[in-house]
Specification:
With 244 residues, this protein is an alpha+beta fold. The chain has two domains: 96 residues, Sandwich (Immunoglobulin-like); 89 residues, Immunoglobulin-like, CATH 2.60.40.10. Helix content is 15%, strand content 42%. The chain contains three helices and 19 strands. Strands 2, 4, 5, 6, 9, 10 and 11 form a seven-stranded mixed beta sheet that branches. The chain has a four-stranded antiparallel beta sheet with strand order 1-3-8-7, with no helix packed on it. Strand 15 and strand 16 form a beta hairpin. The protein starts with a helix and ends in a 5-residue tail after the last strand.
């Protein structure tokens, strides 16, 4: 009786092991053979959520005036980069900015003067670190860019044959502004239009009739810059000394 039971048990065990070997499938460890190490290795790795906070050095700014955006990322180990975007479009020179440790936080900066006049929505996107820190995007920050202010000066020169030359000099932040139209008037009389050169100067050599119009207005005249997409308008008043 014991011999027959032993033969049946042995035959069953051989069948099970043979099936496993033929199929090429390793039998899973169970019971006492199931180790804690294999269970731990099967657990998924979850990246730590991060937060990106965006700030600006100042707003509003003028066109051509640099502005610096700062993105603070927490938590992170300093790896990964930050891309700064304007309305979803990457800002030139502000792509893949590295993180630097400063006053207890990792931060990335972007300095630009390429923003056109208007209202802009700026965001900062942190790339994250694979299996360690998840990506994050800041809330949009409104950046207002104003047109550059201008300053205009008027001058008048007496020519031979009783005529005048009127000039206007246009600058912005003490820098000459070229290629801009200047309108000259005396009272209600239109005199001329001149475009500024590389020195910011526009000039008109007036005819005798228009020079008489200035004389009749006691030598007073006006120079007007109507403004442009990037420059604010300005006006200047001039007066020449009229000899009898």
């Amino acid at each position: 009786m014991h011999k027959s039971v032993h033969r049946v048990f042995g035959r069953a065990r051989a069948i099970v092991l043979g099936a496993a070997l033929l199929s090429g499938i390793a039998l899973p460890a169970t019971g006492l053979w199931a180790g804690s190490a294999s269970a731990a290795s099967a657990a998924p790795t979850i990246a730590v959520p991060t937060s990106t906070i965006l700030s600006t050095s100042h707003s509003p700014t003028f066109y051509h005036q640099p502005v610096t955006f700062t993105a603070v990322v927490t938590p992170t180990n300093g790896l990964g980069t930050v891309v700064f975007r304007n309305g979803g479009v990457a800002i030139p020179g502000c792509i893949f900015q590295p993180l630097h440790f400063f006053f207890g936080h990792y931060r990335a900066t972007c300095t630009t003067s390429s923003l056109l006049p208007g209202v802009h929505l700026i965001t900062a996107a942190y790339s994250g670190v694979v299996l360690l820190y998840s990506p994050s995007v800041s809330l949009p920050r409104v950046q207002i860019v104003l047109r550059d202010p201008t300053h205009l000066r008027a001058n008048i020169f007496f020519n031979y044959h009783q005529t005048f030359t009127v000039t206007g000099r246009l600058d912005s932040f003490f820098t000459p502004v070229g290629g801009q139209p200047l309108i000259f008037r005396t009272g209600h009389t239109f005199l001329c239009v001149a475009f500024t050169n590389s020195h910011g100067i526009g000039a008109c050599l007036l005819s005798y009739a228009k020079s008489v119009a200035i004389r009749q207005n006691a030598g007073r005249f006006t120079v007007i810059f109507p403004g442009s997409f990037i420059y604010q308008p300005s006006i200047a008043f001039g007066q020449g000394i009229i000899h009898p």
